[in-house]
Amino acid sequence: MADLTMRVFEHFALKDVFGELPPLSEIRQTLESDFQSAVSGLGQKDRQALQKTLEAQLAIKRELDVRYGSMALSHEKIEAFAEYMARYVSEIRSRLEKIQ
């Protein structure tokens, strides 16, 4: 069972991703803003904090992937969040490589 209160960026939880409301058209700008804020916050984290953040984001990504095929869910919304998650995970991994 997924923890629907799990945070996906600053303003969103899994329940926002899977729920009908808010619609993607209303949250796209906030999603981009949250992504930019999350990426800029990576520079302040040490290796251990980056690893922990990466693990948390990968857990969220797994939840998105598992539920993607559900007919009742908004595929466009899940795809948008998955795209931002993939970009964020890429940024985290890039920062981790620079620290090594």
What gyration radius follows from the Cα positions, in whole Å? 14 Å
Strand content: under 5%
Question: Mind describing the biggest β-sheet?
Answer: 2 strands, antiparallel
List the uncertain runs: none
Instruction: Give, in spatial order, the strands making up the sheet with the most strands.
Output: 1-2
Q: What is the assembly state of the chains in this entry?
A: single chain
Number of helix segments? 4
Structural class: mainly alpha
Question: Would you list the SSEs in sequence order as H and E?
Answer: EEHHHH
Strand tally, please? 2
Mean pLDDT across all amino acids:
86
Describe this structure in words.
Helix 2 (24-42) packs parallel to helix 4 (75-99) and helix 3 (47-67) runs antiparallel to helix 4 (75-99). A hairpin with a 3-residue loop joins strand 1 (7-8) and strand 2 (12-13). The protein contains four helices and two strands, in the order E-E-H-H-H-H. The radius of gyration is 14 Å and the shape is globular. It starts with 6 loop residues before the first strand and ends with a helix. 12% of the residues are buried. The protein has helices spanning 14-18, 24-42, 47-67, 75-99, and strands spanning 7-8, 12-13. The protein is mainly alpha-helical. The longest helix has 25 residues, at 75-99. Strands 1-2 form a two-stranded antiparallel sheet.
